[in-house]
Design goal:
By secondary structure, the chain is mainly alpha-helical. α1 packs antiparallel against α4.
Length: about 140
């Protein structure tokens, strides 16, 4: 249950219209523009947001099969499409399909990295012997 709450909060954070807030509140807008003016920071942020989303989703949907991993990827892409759609509605600008497609590719790459990290984490946890198995002590 706890992981689902974090997923909901993270998705709300992803979907929150930062660009709209930046336009409506000038002090935040200056900070936002300074932080995300460079293309690399925009790419890094999209990748980071979706990497974390994949890790959170992997706590809820164990991606131990191709079907489960594709479900996590599909959910992340759906959230990415919703995010892009909300940006169009809030900013009311002409749709830049190439920029949106690029953002979705970065979102997908971040999701795949998150799935890979979740898989590595799960496989290490399965292989690591407990302290009792090693003859050690708990405390």
């Amino acid at each position: 249950m706890r992981s689902r709450l974090w997923i909901v909060l993270w998705v709300i954070g992803i979907l929150f219209p930062m660009g709209f807030l930046a336009g409506a509140w000038k002090p935040f807008g200056r900070l936002f523009d300074r932080a995300f003016a460079a293309g690399w920071s925009h790419i890094l942020m999209h990748g980071f947001l979706y990497l974390i989303l994949a890790l959170l989703l992997a706590q809820w949907i164990q991606p131990d099969s191709l079907k489960a991993a594709l479900l996590v990827l599909a959910l992340a892409i759906g959230i990415g499409c919703l995010q892009e759609g909300l940006q169009w509605v809030m900013i009311k600008a002409e749709v830049d399909w190439s920029a949106s497609a690029f953002d979705l590719m970065i979102d997908s790459a971040g999701t795949l990295l998150g799935l890979a990290a979740a898989h590595l984490w799960a496989s290490r946890r399965k292989r690591a012997p407990s302290p009792v198995d090693r003859g050690g002590h708990f405390g």
